[in-house]
Amino acid sequence: MKNIVLFASGSGSNVENIVQYFQDRPNITIASVLTNRRDAKVLDRCNRLKISSLCFNKIAFQQTDCILDILKETDPDLIILAGFLWKIPKKIIAAFPNKIVNIHPALLPKYGGKGMYGFNVHKAVKENREKESGISIHYVNENYDEGAIIHQAKTEILPDDDLETIAAKVQALEYEHFPKVIEKLLFEQ
Ligand code: GAR
């Protein structure tokens, strides 16, 4: 039996997509979804999907072992960051080597780093008149968006694309690739 924990800060559409993908796989459990925002839409999704969720604040995350202890207790095969915007504390990274995986909505190493999330990324891609964008699924290390890349997928950006259409193209790649990459990692470990 494989067991994953998800972290999310916002809407949680990737969380929902991952939960649905693994729904008919009895050998994979979503243990819980952790969020840093009590108003995150992901919490409503968890209620609807009957997935256990937990909300924590910055002090619990950065200055106590509370989340680290919960993760140790859960002993996940993978910790998945699906739109989670806080930096992961060093001791959590050290406790789960090569087990924390993030998705980024651009082709890293371009358009990564602090402040680069959601539409900020697509805005920079548009302003630089990029001809392509995409997704990067990577291991998490101590620096934002710098861990080893596991998988990338590209989409063409047309001159007429606006931020919404770029976001939709990138999101489609996220929904298609992220659950499959997670599944592959779970059974390769
Ligand atoms: C996703 O597009 C994900 O790639 C991005 O946040 C979005 C979350 O959407 N992550 C980052 O930008 C991380 N730097 P969702 O809440 O609808 O799944």
Structure description:
The structure is a single chain. Helix 1 (13-22) packs parallel to helix 2 (41-49) and helix 1 packs parallel to helix 7 (163-188). This protein starts with a strand and ends with a helix. It has a single domain (2-188), classed as Formyl transferase, N-terminal domain (Rossmann fold), CATH 3.40.50.170. A 7-stranded mixed sheet has the order 3-2-1-4-5-6-7, with helices on one face. The chain is an alpha/beta fold and 189 residues long. 40% of the residues lie in helices and 23% in strands. The model has no long low-confidence stretch (mean pLDDT 96). The structure holds glycinamide ribonucleotide (GAR). Glycinamide ribonucleotide binds next to helix 1 and strand 5.
Provide key terms for this protein:
40% helix; Rossmann fold; globular; binds glycinamide ribonucleotide; 189 residues; alpha/beta; 7-stranded mixed beta sheet
